Amino acid sequence: MARILAIDYGMKRTGLAVTDVLQIIASGLTTVNTKELLLFLKDYTSKETVELFIVGEPKQMDNTASESEVLIAPFLQKLEKQFPHIPIHRVDERFTSKMAFQTMIDSGLKKNQRKNKALVDEISATLILQSYLYSK
Fold this sequence. Notes:
Nucleotidyltransferase, domain 5; alpha/beta; 5 strands; YqgF; hydrolase; 136 residues; ribosome biogenesis; nuclease activity; Putative pre-16S rRNA nuclease
């Protein structure tokens, strides 16, 4: 089997998470500068087999697309063009940032550590991936 890679796309930073090869466990991978995301993914997929990209889908409470979806659409086109052999699946990402922050509190991280936005993005990507795995 191959890995599933989740992407919590952001304007500045993008959180990434990945499954193990058996697709059982979701783990935070890293957070990358969004400008370097496609280059990072190209390098990662040259070393690891990825069979699916999970991309967070920001939605409003009424289930309509969030304003940030406008930023994600061009990225999705580039992702599909760069990796035509890897399908893309969208997963609702409502509340993942708040859940990630709560996870940090529950883990006992100190206040200064909780200010690390890159860690919040990585945890958010992990939550998106876990959501997909649970629904599967």
